[in-house]
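Per-record layout

source: Ictidomys tridecemlineatus
name: Olfactory receptor
length: 319
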Amino acid sequence: MANFTTMSGFLLMGFSGKPEIEMVFAAIFLVLYIVALIGNILIITTTSMDHSLSSPMYFFLKHLSFLDLCYISVTVPRSICNSFMHNGYISLWECILQCFAFTLCGCAEMALLTVMSYDRYVAICLPLRYEVIMDISTCVHGLLAVWASGILGGVMHTAATFSIHFCGANIIHQFFCDVPQLLKLSCSNEYVSELGVSGFLALLTFVCFISIGVTYMHIFSTVLRIPSAEGRARAFSTCLPHLSVVILFVSTSAFDFLKPHSESPTVSDFLLTVFYTVLPPTLNPIIYSLRNKAIKEALKKIFERRKDFFFWITSINLF
């Protein structure tokens, strides 16, 4: 990376300079992180243990939950520790790694949501050919493409961001190494290359979003032609959770990146960032578990097994 910055690190300002307010936000973040951790681990465990959830839909859902775990773990635990330790310092290499991992997870998640929409399209619009089209090879290649796009996006974004010179105060007005905030620290207009990379990734994201939109137009057109109300309800029950996740992830991130960034960030700026960094990984498992009957039945069976197991262990101890 040419013209590499000589800065040794940055200071993450977080939500407020007041320790008591920082502790409140840290507690909220901790609760949300625990909810996201439990929810996504339950989804991963359920789709792995229950053989009735072995279709490509649940294969991709399991990897979406894994991505959500990585996505929220990149930023939130470090922010919680900073708040409790009252120390927002982050070294240069930690910032680079955080920026790379965050971009990788974001790009990979968008790609995975696009692949999942194609899976739903084949399942509903081409049901007789579903097993032939969405075989193991297709699923594996789709997953490899997802991770390849994430790694490529992460490398491009990180290399372009940290190839510029930083000067002046090394203060980042955010709870993680946010690229727009980093660009404000550049000495001149050296960030033109970064803007080009951002524009390219935004274009790819837009293409993914349009692809998902066109896919769902075909899906809804097919579903509305299903004669039975029960069939329509079953089809919608497999599509609406995914569509809700797409809308939540894309709308919150797009709104934050497209809005003008002020020189001195307000509380609303921080909250908007929370909407696309913390809320999607936290709410995705809830959306899928509430709207998906198969997931709810599988979760119920797992908890019943655990209940029977603990009852058996207790009975042995009593004797």
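summary: The two ends are 68 Å apart (CA to CA). Residues 9-302 form a domain with the Rhopdopsin 7-helix transmembrane proteins fold (CATH 1.20.1070.10).
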